[in-house]
Design brief:
About 20% of the residues lie in helices and about 35% in strands. It has about 700 residues and is α+β, with helices and mostly antiparallel strands.
Length: about 700
């Protein structure tokens, strides 16, 4: 959307009886009948001696050799202003005021402006003034608001394929792809969609000037198309082998405006339709990074080429990796993240091969950082084209993470593999895993099967990061240690802060940079480089598992109400007021408005003096109340978000019930579907949501 620049100018009451305000969108059209939709004008009569005032709007647009201004004698409509009442100029009145029939044209005729529907190119100034309608001389009653802008015609299309002055293979069933680059997408005033006129001329004899021919000759073929490409096939008039042809496209929008340089006409491009192909030809590759380990390289095709050779290497490396393709693109996999690569391509046919194209560089993105319970759940898809010849060291995609294979054995069916590897779950923490009969597609993504931790399992791994409380340190922490039941933080400046925090159930400390330390119940401190959960399973849920999970969502919908969430919120507000009242009393006792550094700890961003135990207890209760409210709100909206089977399936891969994977737990249970759904909601979904909230609360 265009950026809204607000120009507000006011006339002082001492000098002008009318105060005016103009809001003008940028970029805006330069066709006056449409300009009213890009502006808002409000007026206010600030002279109390006037019971009312009839006014009209005077516009003046002045630029490169032209001026367009309101003709005061032709105006037949006005606005009546009342004292100290803001009146907005309605769209109909603005449209009337900007009607070209009400304007005086200098330097450009009304007919010329009607034909081109835009201002002449260059800098121009748009001014507005409020004038009296009843005064014989139509005098000004406000100051003049002006804004300087610049109008430039949009670039016309530029031919892309086939290559200009090249050869196109003559075949019994031709299929010639024409395409052109466009540059008008964000030009103001252009009505989308646009229309392209494709025109093709036969240049005969060869010494005819194509530029003269397209302006004087009748096209051999023409067509109106809505997209920037066109395919010429055997259903169109046949092309003569050996003949020279030229083509161009003309762009105009649907309201007939000509907002394009060269009247929207592209350059003229020629080609020869022949069986005698001359090589080398020019190939133009383009590289598009798709993910940290994948990229797509594509280039212009020639119908007579039998294949293409793609070279790829890391920047600074000496050796090229070769890839063969029989089309105009190739998908690269198993690249390194955050790495610059270089690519080049050449084509070959029975008559020879092209020269190497120019080298193109591209950079793979860095791996995404997934924080614990960030709300992202990786999508699972049905199997696709199987991967072939996976070797140790290959990176596979599993959900939101990457698996680097250490040992791998192909299965009996194509695309199925077993083996071992490592999954990076934190920035620096790698989990040893094994996988048995997983399906891998051509993009090296695991689509089905299961990856298991080689340690005590995913649950045991997640358990080592369990904690019941969190603490936010508003500084740059260097280290954390415990002594005599207390937690100490040493900042990067060497300052020591004592936290009056209970780590009996585990305590997660986060500083302002996002660095984290986990304090275990035994007092040991473990640095945490990041935080992410692996899904507990990758296999899709069965129809029965989906049904129970859907019923669990229905149970939540019937038991969680907005009223219950609001009642908890009211309790939290009462507790918050008590906390802040206590802080005021604390500051009065301390005799200072800002507690001394080192005496302040932070619980839900509220400063509490360490010696004020009752206030700390009250604030801990407030934190628990806030946690309960957030849990309630999430549970209130969760069933409405997870209505599709695919969404339920993804949620189920992260769900555990009483310490077991949801699927495994359900297999061991008996009872009615509604009873099982209730237990899944109470013992699975609610604990998971609470864990999310606790890890998110500072």
């Amino acid at each position: 959307m265009p950026l809204l620049w607000i120009i507000c100018s006011y006339c002082t009451a001492q000098q002008w009886p009318v105060q005016c305000n103009l809001q003008l969108n940028h970029p805006h059209t330069s066709w006056l009948p449409d300009l009213y939709s890009d502006m808002n004008i409000s007026l206010e009569l600030t002279d109390s001696s006037e019971p009312s005032l009839d006014v009209f709007l005077y516009f003046k647009i002045e630029g490169n050799g032209f001026r367009i201004e309101t003709d005061p004698l032709s105006i037949q409509e006005w606005i009546t202003l009342q004292p100290f009442t803001v009146t907005a100029a309605d769209p109909d009145f603005l449209a009337y005021s900007l009607d070209p029939d009400q304007m005086i044209f200098t330097g450009i005729s009304p007919g010329e402006y009607e034909e081109i529907r835009h201002f002449p190119e260059g800098e121009y100034t748009l001014c507005i003034q409020v004038r009296s309608y009843v005064h014989p001389d139509k005098v000004a009653v406000s100051n003049t608001l002006c804004e300087t802008d610049w109008f430039v015609l949009a670039e016309p299309p530029r031919t892309a394929l086939p290559e200009c002055a090249g050869d196109i293979a003559a075949t019994p069933l031709p299929e010639i792809h024409f395409s052109w680059d466009i540059f008008h997408t964000f030009t103001p005033g252009i009505i989308q969609p646009v229309n392209y006129l494709f025109e093709l001329w036969e240049v005969f004899p060869d010494n005819l000037d194509p530029e003269w021919l397209v302006n004087a000759g009748v096209p051999y073929y023409s067509a109106n198309v809505s997209a920037p490409d066109f395919t010429y096939t055997s259903v169109h008039p046949p092309l003569q082998e050996g003949r020279l042809y030229c083509w161009r496209v003309t762009l105009r929008d649907f309201n007939g405006s000509s907002l394009f340089a060269n009247n929207g006409k592209s350059n003229v491009c020629t080609f020869r339709y022949t069986t005698e192909i001359s090589v080398p030809l020019l190939l133009r590759p383009e590289a598009i990074p798709l993910s940290p380990r994948k990229a797509l390289v594509r280039w212009n095709e020639y119908s007579f080429m039998t294949g293409y050779l793609l070279h790829v290497k890391k920047e600074g490396a000496g050796n090229w990796f070769e890839f063969h393709s029989d089309s105009g693109s190739h998908r690269l996999v198993n690249l390194e993240p955050a790495t610059v690569y270089i690519a080049r391509v050449k084509g070959y046919s029975e008559n020879g091969e092209t020269a190497w194209s120019e080298e193109v560089r591209f950079t793979t993105p860095s791996p995404p950082v997934y924080s614990c319970n960030s709300g992202f759940i990786p999508t699972l898809f049905p199997p696709e084209t199987p991967a072939k010849n996976i070797t140790p060291g290959t990176f596979l995609k599993i959900g939101a993470f990457e698996l680097e294979t250490s040992h791998i054995t192909p299965g009996q069916q194509s695309g199925y593999y077993s083996g071992t590897g490592k999954v990076t779950v934190f920035f620096g923490f790698r989990l040893n895993v094994s996988f048995q009969t997983v399906f891998v597609n051509e993009d090296l993504e695991i689509r089905s099967g299961e990856v298991r931790a080689l340690s005590s399992g995913i649950n045991a791994w997640a358990g080592q990061w369990d904690y019941e409380d969190t603490w936010f340190y508003p500084g740059d922490a260097d280290s954390v240690f415990t002594s005599n039941g207390h937690v100490y933080i040493i900042s990067e400046n060497g300052d020591t802060t004592l936290l009056q925090a209970d780590y009996e159930g585990g305590l997660l400390i986060t500083d302002q940079n996002g660095d984290q330390w986990l304090v275990h119940p035994d007092g040991t401190v473990v640095p945490v480089e990041g935080g992410s959960f692996l899904p507990l399973q990758t296999a899709p849920l069965s129809a029965y598992e989906l049904e129970i999970l859907a019923r669990a969502m229905m149970y939540l919908s019937s038991t969680i109400t907005a009223q219950s969430a609001d009642s908890i919120r009211a309790l939290c507000e009462t507790g918050r007021q008590q906390v802040y009242s206590g802080i005021g009393q604390q500051r009065a006792v301390l005799g200072t408005t800002v507690p001394e550094e080192g005496d302040v700890v932070f619980i839900t961003s509220v400063p509490i003096h360490p010696e004020n135990a009752s206030l700390s207890t009250l604030n801990n209760q407030l934190k628990t109340c806030e946690e309960d409210y957030l849990v309630q709100k999430i549970l209130l909206h969760l069933p409405g978000e997870l209505v599709e089977a695919s969404s339920l399936n993804l949620f189920g891969t992260y769900l555990s019930v009483l310490g077991k994977k949801y699927s495994d737990w359900l297999k061991e249970q008996s009872g009615s579907a509604d009873e099982l759904a209730r237990r899944v909601a109470e013992d699975g979904i609610k604990p998971l949501v609470r864990k999310v909230v606790r890890k998110k609360m500072k």
